[in-house]
Design goal:
elongated; about 575 residues; six-stranded mixed sheet; 21 helices; alpha/beta
Length: about 575
């Protein structure tokens, strides 16, 4: 918890201090009301006038009104502290996740990260709000009420302590039964998040394979596990409420029962005074019981909250395996990329995905990468982006080891267009500028759309660049989304452009038109084109052929057709002799 306390600002500590002071005042005023009742009883005993009773009644009403006002102020202060506190924790969690490499993100899993940044933070916020109120008010109320009743009557005091002891025992028993279940809640929420995301993200595949019943059964199991866990803890917690209320009524009844016996055995002049003491004592005893009730709820909440605290702290204290350097700018060879004997595996226990890969791309050149599925093509792009670091070897950009760059400076050199075209809700303009509408002129945006072959369907929309884009780009087809994604990369115009199978949703004619336009638009940029199609990379200055993470060939299309059996095999499966001749002529 100490790790999270730093998210409280000085003004929050001021509000908490004011809240604590007001709680002391509230408790004092609440405990003054029974004293006023005792004063009224004494006035009645001495046959005082109505004006005296009205005077004391006015002070009782004033105390009650002040208690109401102070309760409102305390609630406002702690709510403001709690909301700001959770806001800063969520921001810290979000920034931490953004700073982690893919290795750490995969370790936590996306569903767990969602739970940690939402439900876990809410649990901590609730404890702060309730704890700041109840954990201060309840002990103060209990101590002051106990001080008031001490020495009043031994039997009544014993009854009150007996009730408190009973409540403590019930809370201990319920806590021991519930705490293991509370600790499982967050993991069960992670699980239901995961199953829900699987169903929503793969909804087309689920329907295509008629797998609704299978997916529903998975969700039903995760849902029932969470429900059963919540039902157990809910039932256990609900036992507290009737036990607490019964204890309040039992102690009240016992105090009045024994009080009646004492009054009957006392002399007539003393009976009114004993009755007055009984009423006041009963009020104080109820305050003691209620205080321990409030504390019991905090103690039962604590295990689940501490699990959430541990989960947030674990995330915030995780250090990224990617350590950035200090280089902010390269002086020469801008756009050069070099792999020097690079090997990499996603998990230490598995076989390497890349084995001793070496190649060099000079500024302005185009490198095509091709190979069977799972040969490590996209891994090369991820390594250049430093989403992972290689297990062996060196990757250089602009003749500088990428580990020496500040990440922001490294990314300034790179435009990355992935196969999965992810568009954000907003407009075409905000997506092309990635949320920075004023970063580029309309002419630059339109030129990028023209090169990416997206200008035709954008022009058809009357809103043009301000055309609406729904979350994920669901109002566009797959090919349209991919062309907009390519246009976004072109707008950035990084010196190194990485196209990770980003032409896969395009027909051959559009693919060819886009590549021809790209050669003119980005003739000075280094381009890395990862593709399954021979036609998309055969015009590249160099073609890298991968198989099982190893380089099987590197050269031009003509040289590889003669020297690389794997490349020739891929070409023969994709191109007929006539197609190959036509593509050769098109070059």
């Amino acid at each position: 918890m100490k790790r999270l306390v730093k998210f409280l600002r000085p003004v929050d500590w001021l509000f908490i201090s004011i809240n604590i002071i007001l709680i002391f005042v509230r408790v004092y005023l609440e405990l003054r009301i029974p004293d006023f009742m005792e004063d009224i009883t004494e006035i009645l005993q001495s046959r005082g006038g109505f004006s005296q009773i009205a005077h004391i009644g006015f002070y009782m009403l004033l105390c009650a009104f002040l208690v109401l006002i102070f309760a409102f102020v305390c609630g406002y202060l702690v709510s403001r502290v709690g909301a700001g506190f959770s806001q800063r924790i969520r921001r810290a969690v979000f920034e931490k996740v953004n700073s982690l490499s893919e290795r750490e993100v995969n370790y936590f899993s996306t569903d767990s990260l969602i739970t940690r940044s939402t439900n876990d933070v809410i649990q901590v916020q609730n404890l702060l709000i309730m704890g700041t109120q109840l954990m201060v008010r309840a002990p103060v109320m209990a101590v002051m009420a106990l001080w008031k009743i001490m020495g009043k009557n031994g039997v009544w005091t014993a009854l009150t302590f007996g009730g408190v002891l009973t409540i403590v025992l019930v809370v201990v028993v319920i806590s021991r039964l519930s705490i293991p279940k509370f600790k499982k809640v967050q993991k069960l929420i992670d699980k239901i998040n995961r199953v829900t995301r699987e169903g929503l993200e793969g909804i087309r595949e689920v329907r295509a394979f008629n797998g609704q019943s299978f997916q529903e059964s998975k969700f039903d199991k995760a849902n029932r596990d969470l429900m059963n866990n919540q039902m157990f803890t809910g039932r256990a917690m609900e036992i507290l409420n009737p036990v607490m209320r019964s204890m309040v009524n039992i102690i009240s009844l016992a105090i009045y029962w024994t009080g009646a016996s004492i009054i009957l055995g006392a002399a007539r002049p003393e009976r009114l005074e004993i009755f007055s003491d009984m009423v006041v004592f009963s009020s104080y005893a109820m305050q003691v019981i209620v205080s321990f009730m409030m504390l019991s709820f905090i103690f039962i909440m604590m295990p689940r909250v501490m699990v959430s605290v541990q989960r947030i702290r674990e995330l915030l204290e995780t250090e990224s395996s990617i350590v950035e350097g200090n280089v902010t700018e390269a002086k020469t060879e801008i756009g050069k990329v070099e792999f020097d004997n690079v090997s990499f595996s996603y998990y230490e226990s598995r076989e390497p995905v890349l084995k001793n890969v070496s190649f060099t791309i000079d500024p302005g050149q185009t490198l095509g990468i091709i190979g069977p599925t799972g040969s490590g093509k996209s891994t090369i792009a991820r390594l250049i982006l430093r989403l992972y670091d290689p297990n062996q070897g060196v990757i250089r950009v602009n003749d500088i080891d990428i580990k020496k760059y500040k990440l922001e400076s490294l990314y300034d050199y790179i435009s990355f267009i992935s196969q999965k075209a992810l568009l954000l809700s907003g407009t075409v303009k905000t997506n092309l500028g990635f949320g920075q509408e004023n970063s580029n002129t309309n002419e630059e945006l339109l030129k990028a759309l023209e090169v990416s072959q997206a200008l035709d369907f954008i022009d058809e929309d009357k809103n043009g660049l301000m055309a609406s884009v729904s979350q994920g780009g669901t109002n566009f087809s797959g090919g349209q989304k991919q062309r907009l994604s390519i246009a976004r990369g072109l707008v950035k115009n990084g010196k190194i452009m990485i196209f990770d199978d980003s032409f896969s949703a395009l027909d051959l004619q559009t693919d060819k038109a886009l590549r021809n336009a790209l050669d003119d638009y980005a003739k000075d940029n280094t381009k890395i084109v990862i593709s399954q199609r021979i036609g998309s990379i055969m015009n590249a200055d160099k073609i890298l052929v991968l198989e099982e993470g190893e380089v099987r060939g590197c050269g031009t299309h003509e040289s590889l057709m003669k020297s690389c059996p794997l490349y020739k095999e891929i070409a023969s499966t994709q191109l007929s002799i006539e197609d190959e001749r036509g593509l050769e002529n098109a070059r």
